[in-house]
């Protein structure tokens, strides 16, 4: 501004001086076109001479328009590839070579474009930040003027910066930071934490696919690959798009994110793909352990891949747990953002809707996991019985049977150990030593349970008349819990 005033004063000298250069014709001041996101405008207390002065912020934004359009085009092509890859995965794989071909071509191409997207947007952020470094125009946010650009120059997405810059405020100029209320600072910190952790999560998913899956697919059969990795590629594609949109919003709004509910609502509504992955988790770990135990070369290869920098020195089994851990963390992250968001606004409603969706999904995932683990355990119990005693426990004619509770109890008089298996419709008594059925499966509607009147560790299983009217006395220190569980399960079964 000082340079501008100096030039104006020199041009207003005495008109009689012949050496004075002719006064240049002034062009009208540039008007900044308002955006739907927080408007950047000149501070009211800064006067401008009527000459052609372009805001550095506006200039940087204008320069990045072409780059942004190109980036969005890349992202559109990436999403199209993601859809094609998802369709191709729904088709049965005849052998591991078809899996390898799909992974290396479709997913590899997508990740290549995703990295190109990140590089391009990082360059855009550099241009914008460097352009704003000398700006004297202010940025207006939430109707509060900021006397200088709020962001510092960055060379890559802020969520990928070092741990020394671990929070939002570390990227904000002090004078700009002071203009925000504590409530708004907390909200921006919560949003920044979501973006930062999402970026780390995508790196972990990328390690699973590019380091482990890409190598193991050459030496493990296709069926085992499907069980171990399930639909991890679909999950990676979903979150790569999510974090790309988050970081694009972060750059477009110059770190101050006024709206994030629309992105949460858009992407978190697609997390149903986790139901397949999480319900398969128990089987995935078991198959991986079996492969490592039987294949020494594979075990050595996994140890070598663990040392890859992308793997962060984590074993494959640990990486495979990250999707389950991530999905359970979303409610905490979203609640923190919602806590500092103004109520009775569209933004609050969008975030609240996203929270409801993720909490509903978690309930569905937990139920899927419980059903799958129940199915697997009942299969193991059936297989543990000696030949001729095996029974089909895992299925009924109408639905999957659920395992409610199991444990070892003892006969009251002989102390013979009986393994009791309580399902949602039957109760099973197994001789532990002989690995045989003590009784045929007993429907819950034909049994009642009661406590011994004098002994606190004994319960009675009373069989109805069709079962001979037998009374079985069993000892357990957990007597009351067993009685309560059996009675509550009977009530649910009758319903």
Work out the helix count: 16
Radius of gyration: 33 Å
**What is the CATH first-level class name of the largest domain?**
Mainly Alpha
Number of domains: 2
Q: What is the CATH superfamily of the largest domain?
A: Dbl homology (DH) domain
Strand-pairing-aware structural class: alpha+beta
Average pLDDT works out at 74
Shape: globular
How far is it from the N-terminal to the C-terminal residue, by CA?
79 Å
DSSP strand count: 9
The ordered string of helix (H) and strand (E) elements is: HHHHEEHHHHHHHHHHHEEEEEEEH
CATH topology of the largest domain: Dbl Homology Domain, Chain A
Percent helix range = 40-55%
Instruction: Tell me the fraction of residues in β-strands, as a range.
Output: 5-15%
Subcellular location: Cytoplasm
Main location: cytoplasm
Pfam family, one: RhoGEF
GO molecular function: guanyl-nucleotide exchange factor activity
Keywords:
disordered N terminus, 7-stranded antiparallel β-sheet, single chain, two-stranded antiparallel sheet, 2 domains, Dbl Homology Domain, Chain A, about 500 residues, 16 helices, alpha+beta, PH-domain like
How would you describe this protein?
Its main location: cytoplasm. One of its GO terms (cellular component) is cytoplasm. InterPro entries: DBL_dom_sf, DH_dom, Endocytic_GEF_Adapter, PH-like_dom_sf. GO terms for molecular function: guanyl-nucleotide exchange factor activity. This protein is of the alpha+beta class and 495 residues long. It folds into two domains: 318 residues, Dbl Homology Domain, Chain A (Up-down Bundle), CATH 1.20.900; 92 residues, Pleckstrin-homology domain (PH domain)/Phosphotyrosine-binding domain (PTB) (PH-domain like, Roll), CATH 2.30.29.30. 54% of the residues lie in helices and 11% in strands. A hairpin with a 2-residue loop joins strand 4 and strand 5. Helix 3 packs antiparallel against helix 4, helix 7 crosses helix 11 and helix 10 packs parallel to helix 15. The longest helix has 39 residues. The protein is globular. The N terminus is likely disordered.
